[in-house]
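Hmm, what's this shape?
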Amino acid sequence: MMTAVPTSARTNAAGSGARVWFTLLLAAAVGCTGQIDNASRDEGQTNALANAGRGGAATHRAGSSSEAAGSASEMTSNPPSSPYEGEGEGQGDEETMSAFCQPGLNRCADACVILSSDPGNCGSCGKVCEAGLSCHDGLCRCESGMDRCDTACVELARDAKNCGSCGHACAADEQCIAGQCGCGVGQLRCGDKCVSVAEDGNNCGACGTVCEAGDKCTRGQCVLDCGSLTLCTDMCFDTTKDLNHCGNCTTVCMAGQTCTRSRCRTATMQ
């Protein structure tokens, strides 16, 4: 069984409830306002920090630009003294400096050279070959076919003072032929000297063959020495006027002719 509630009590209860709800609504409104204020303050702080960051970055960029300008100014006022400054400084040997020469060349002092053939830098920088020597494959030596005897390069096959070997000298009348001391072409060694057996009257045709008095050695044979005359067989004739040997040993002038100036002439031609 339900008990009846008086109308005044219901009215008071409804009023109390309304006040409670109003109070709650008012408190919620105040809370939202506070949050809005806090958000505004946070946004302001964020904007301030962002502005400060942009200002700092701009200041940093300005500082970097100033430093770069200063570095460029310093480089302009103090240019490098060499295109290779700072690269291998103090390393002046040919191995380091050869990097600046063309392939196959080496750096010696202020020049690029070929160490295998340069007589002034033979094998290494500053190694100079002596006079008479050439640089071959980085070594100071004589030209091909030559040998070094004392301070000279000689051809042992032909040098009369170094025939076949250094210091082996040929006799004064000898020649060095193929590295052997001997007489020249057409000569023979007779005794202690070289003679031409084709014309030597004491060694005519061979060593020891002596021509008789009035004879001479011609082409290795002893023949009559006719002087200014012409030898025909074993006699001397004046071929400029001899009728039977006119001009030579076989020309005979005809009857009625004379031999004049090595020619046969008739009386009317003279």
Q: What stands out?
A: Helices lie at 7-77, 94-97. Residues 1-18, 29-40, 46-53, 55-92 have pLDDT under 50 and may be disordered. The chain has two helices and 16 strands. Residues 228 and 238 are 8 Å apart (CA to CA).
